Amino acid sequence: MPEGNAAAKNDTSPPMPGLVGSGPAMQKVYQLTRMVARSNASVLLLGETGTGKELIAKAIHRLSPRASGPFVRVNCGALAENLLESELFGHVRGAFTGALSNRTGRFEAAHTGTVFLDEINSTTPKLQVKLLRVLQEHEFERVGDTQTIRVDTRVIAASNCDLAAEAEAGRFRKDLYYRLNVVTIELPPLRDRREDIPDLVRHFVALYCQQNNRRPMYVTPEAMQALQEYWWPGNVRELQNYIERAVVLAPGDELTCDLLPAAVLEKQPPPPVACDAGDLDALFRKLVAQGIAAAGPNSGNLYASIVDRVEKELILQVMQACNNVRVKAAERLGINRNTLHKKLRQHGLE
Questions:
Q1: Tell me, what DSSP letter sits at residue 254?
Q2: N or C: which end of the chain has fewer CB within 10 A?
Q3: Span 217-242, mean pLDDT?
Q4: Model pLDDT for residues 110-166, shown as the tens digit of each residue
Q5: Are 203 and 196 in contact (CB under 8 A)?
Q6: Which of 131, 129, 143 is nearest to 97 (CA)?
Q7: Of the residues 163, 188, 213, the one at which a domain ends
């Protein structure tokens, strides 16, 4: 093994400021981050919303030979297909209504650097074809243009869902998945790395005390215990928000339980859907049977048929449990609002 890779494999410390945690799960993430950073390979980051995928992407860029180049982030779930295509590849004047001048896309802007494609699972099949070409050929055309542009850009992609399952179900191109999946780094949810919570709490308390010109605060043992026992559906981002709120509202120099949201103090996670465990088991068996019947005996797409039915029922149940409030439903499902909107439309649940 080359000396550089050996050193990277043995280094389990956080690769950049802002990454907090020294438990076994994060040590593996740090090792992989250092090892892959020295290459030009595409990287796929998998993890729930709020686990820190963008921080790892930035760490890979800063530790790479491309560190002097730009780091460009694109949230693929925040834009409609036509706008995202223009955002990624640029457009020429007159390409579509409102295109009053030429525009440089994010891939072109990231030349010699890194482009981070967050929520890549939200992209459409048409756009996935163009992304595959950029990854394979390092070239593309701006929207409305015929001139080919070549770029030297490293791609780091992220997904908050199982991209392999999405590819098997036919919702994501398999060839693009294989091209992205050169090296995969899975970021653990906060509930699976509870040993890191005290360090994270102290880090955010110090950060927000400094930002709000407050004296250092002491976290009471009761408050710390409540934070460690909560299930953290929003992961580190949720913890960060709650600590900032507590620091801002604290009347003194102590962070106490009464400064934490009621959900944290209740400790038990809410049920993922409106049914109880027995109902869910029966519902799942029913949906599987319906999927098999609907697909027919000669179907070669049985997996996709069943997954589609289960996904539709899950979204329906969660929407009902959240009183049809899409923001809450998206948070409960662990997906962004745009993805939820697309799935509601896909399943005829709008």
A1: E
A2: C
A3: 93
A4: 999 999 999 999 888 888 999 999 999 998 888 877 788 899 999 999 998 888 888
A5: no
A6: 143
A7: 188
CB 275 within 8 A of CB 287: no
- Residues 155, 236, single domain; the answer is no
Instruction: Give the CA distances from residue 296 to residues 174, 283, 290, 299, in Å, rounded to whole numbers and listed in that order.
Output: 24, 20, 10, 6
Q: Pick 2 or 327 by higher pLDDT.
A: 327
Cα first-last separation, the chain: 54
Query: pLDDT confidence of 222, banded at 50, 70, 90?
Result: very high
Write the single-letter amino acid at 55.
L
245 pLDDT exceeds 60? Answer: yes
Sign of the dihedral defined by the CA atoms of residues 241, 242, 248, 254, in that order: negative
- Distance of alpha carbon 346 from alpha carbon 18, whole angstroms: 38
On the 0-12 / 13-18 / 19+ scale of CB atoms within 10 A, 202 is middle
Q: What pLDDT is attached to residue 207?
A: 95
Domain shared by 54 and 41, yes or no: yes
As given in the structure block, the two tokens for residue 217 are: 């605060």
Contact status, residue 172 vs residue 163, Cβ threshold 8 Å: yes
Q: Which of 214, 247, 266 finishes a domain? A: 266
User: What's the pLDDT at 135?
Assistant: 92
- CA–CA dist 184, 180 (Å, integer): 9
Q: Which residues pair with 140 in a beta bridge?
A: 149
| Helix segments in 11-98, DSSP class H | 24-37, 53-62, 81-89
Q: Which amino acid would we find at residue 100?
A: L
Same domain, 319 and 254: no
Which residue in this structure is represented by tokens 């409609």?
80
Residues 175 and 106 in one domain: yes
Residue closest to 38 by CA, chosen among 209, 196, 154, 167: 154
pLDDT, mean over the chain: 84
What tens digit of pLDDT does each residue of 286-333 get? 666 666 665 555 556 677 777 777 888 888 888 877 767 787 788 788
In angstroms, the CA 329 to CA 129 distance is 30
Average pLDDT over residues 261-285: 59
